[in-house]
Amino acid sequence: MDIKPIAKLLVLKTQAKKETFIRSGRLAWAAGEEDLLAFYLSELDEDEQHAFVVPPDANAVFIDEGHWEKFMTSPQRHAQLRANEISYAWDRLIETFSRHILAGTQYYTSHHSVNNSERSIRLLARESRTRRRVLATYLTEVVREELPESGRRSRHVTPSCPGDPYYVFLLLWHPKTVSYEDFREVRRKLLEAYCMIIKTLYPDAEDIVGIATEDSIVRERSEDVMYLDARHWSESLQFEALRLKEELGILRNYETFERQWQEYPGSPMDSRPTLRNIKRLV
């Protein structure tokens, strides 16, 4: 799947915010598109999303020349780039899954068409760079930590904002005595069970994405991705999920913890544009 259309949608979303900001009359003047972008990237709204934020005591703002250069050379921007390095592992997952979907080389599929399989990849691809950093960090930790005696480890990630998907990451040991075909089938069924059980833990979950890989002596790992549309959740599915939870011992006991993630690690952004109060616009 070509992810360029998805990137284009994100650009259009930013463009829509810019147009709304301009039509609001709260932008008096901007030196250029890049300085306007620096203003956008330096501010967050109440939902922790980038936005064109005008201070409450200002009617409108001037955005002077030079803010883009200051933003790009700031210590915070360089710290952001360093912190984002791990997020490119998420990009590689998207590319791998997309390539297999288009080539028809998926080991298995939970859908009957490329269009439906694409949905899980679109959820992965719509994640912001900071969110990709978070997800890739958690996934990497699952893979690198020593496996318990059960031979599997999982971690689930709840949404950062309303509407975000729930994720579950699964690492499973591949014993030498088990054929690769049997192992992949077991892993697929186990990942499906995890996704279903997530719904029992979080009844409001609508989009659930599972990603599984293996821990073994081989260097090359394989990955599975699974999508569960949990909007139409029946009593029979709830019963089956609870049965699997008890029978397989999945997520009966789990720890919860929170981390603070800064888009710009370190001190607050010092590259914010100079804001001037405009009492009247002529």
Blueprint of the fold:
Layout: H1 4-23, E1 27-30, H2 33-41, E2 61-63, H3 67-72, H4 75-83, H5 88-103, H6 114-125, H7 129-144, E3 152-157, E4 166-173, H8 180-201, E5 207-215, E6 224-229, H9 235-248
Written description of the protein model:
The structure is a single chain. Helices cover 44% and strands 13% of the residues. The chain is an alpha/beta fold and 282 residues long. It folds into two domains: 4-73, no CATH class; 86-248, no CATH class. The longest helix has 22 residues, at 180-201. 26% of the residues are buried. The model is unreliable at 1-10, 109-115 and 270-282 (pLDDT under 50).
Q: How do you describe this structure in short?
A:
The protein has 282 residues and is an alpha/beta fold.
Average pLDDT over all residues: 80
User: Given the helix and strand composition, which structural class is it?
Assistant: alpha/beta
The ordered string of helix (H) and strand (E) elements is: HEHEHHHHHEEHEEH
Measured distance between first and last alpha carbons: 49 Å
Q: Into which percent range does the helicity of residues fall?
A: 40-55%
The main sheet orders its strands as 3-4-5-6
* Structure summary, number of beta strands: 6
With helices defined by DSSP (H or I, 4 residues minimum), what is the helix count?
Answer: 9
Number of domains: 2
What fraction of the residues are assigned to beta strands by DSSP? Answer: 5-15%
- Low-pLDDT regions: 1-10, 109-115, 270-282
Major beta sheet summary: 4 strands, mixed
Radius of gyration, whole Å:
22 Å
Give the overall form. elongated
Characterize the quaternary organization of these chains.
single chain
